[in-house]
Design goal:
The chain has 220 residues and is of the alpha/beta class. The chain has helices at residues 3-8, 19-40, 51-65, 133-138, 160-177, and strands at residues 71-78, 87-94, 105-112, 148-155, 188-192, 196-203, 211-219.
Length: 220
């Protein structure tokens, strides 16, 4: 095969670990990055860092932790494959050279704080202009065509237990008033440490199968 043949030959995905194990490795990398991230942002006043800046610094450190893994991390993705309309905060795609750069794991980032004004109070779940964190995955503004995705929450005040109960309360309230929300979409199986909290939920998409959401909360 000539160099020209290689250049135009379709490339196949040939990663060393399957998708399930790959996502496990992403969550492990989140956990390993978190203490470095928390120490890193002490050089700033973290309340002065908005969602975009917190995400920027977390992803920069995350890239260092995942340099030897078979994927790359992009940011602010416009979905050219599905034209879903949203821009996800960061995403994972295979490192191996091939024809596609399509994401296999989309991640939205949200601040968790009781300082938001009333119109942003439930933003982790549902928001104005359909911009709520979980909401974006339900309507496939993010994660279209993907079976598992993630939400990183930066906890600026109160506790992981408070936010778990509060967010689940919002979802249950929505399930009683909105036909597109269901009580079994609540977060479950949380695991806690001093630095983070991990949980899962199944968000029911309107036009396709549910998406499994990995919730990863960092206590600032």
């Amino acid at each position: 095969m000539t160099a020209e043949d290689i250049k135009h030959s379709p490339q196949r995905i040939n990663v060393s670990i399957p998708i399930g194990k790959t996502i496990d490795s992403i969550i492990v990398s989140f956990k390993e990055t978190t203490p470095y991230f928390k120490n890193h942002i002490t050089k700033f006043t973290h309340k002065a860092l908005n969602e975009e800046k917190l995400t920027q610094e977390f992803v920069a450190l995350l890239r260092r932790k995942t340099i030897d893994l078979p994927f790359l991390i992009g940011q602010e993705k416009a979905d050219v494959y599905h034209n879903s309309g949203g821009r996800v905060d960061f995403y994972f795609y295979w490192k191996e050279e091939m024809e596609t750069t399509e994401s296999f794991f989309d991640v939205e980032a949200k601040r968790l704080t009781d300082k938001f004004p009333k119109n942003r109070k439930k933003e982790y779940v549902i928001g104005e202009n359909k911009n709520g964190g979980i909401e974006r995955f339900k309507i496939e503004k993010h994660g279209k065509g993907i079976s598992q995705c993630g939400i990183v929450g930066f906890i600026e005040d109160l506790t992981t237990d408070y936010w778990l109960k509060t967010i689940n309360g919002w979802i249950i309230e929505l399930s009683q008033t909105n036909d597109n929300w269901f009580e079994d979409e609540i977060l479950f199986d949380p695991t806690d440490s001093d630095n983070y909290c991990c949980s899962f939920s199944n968000a029911k998409r309107l036009n396709s199968d549910s998406v499994l959401l990995h919730h990863f909360w960092i206590v600032l």
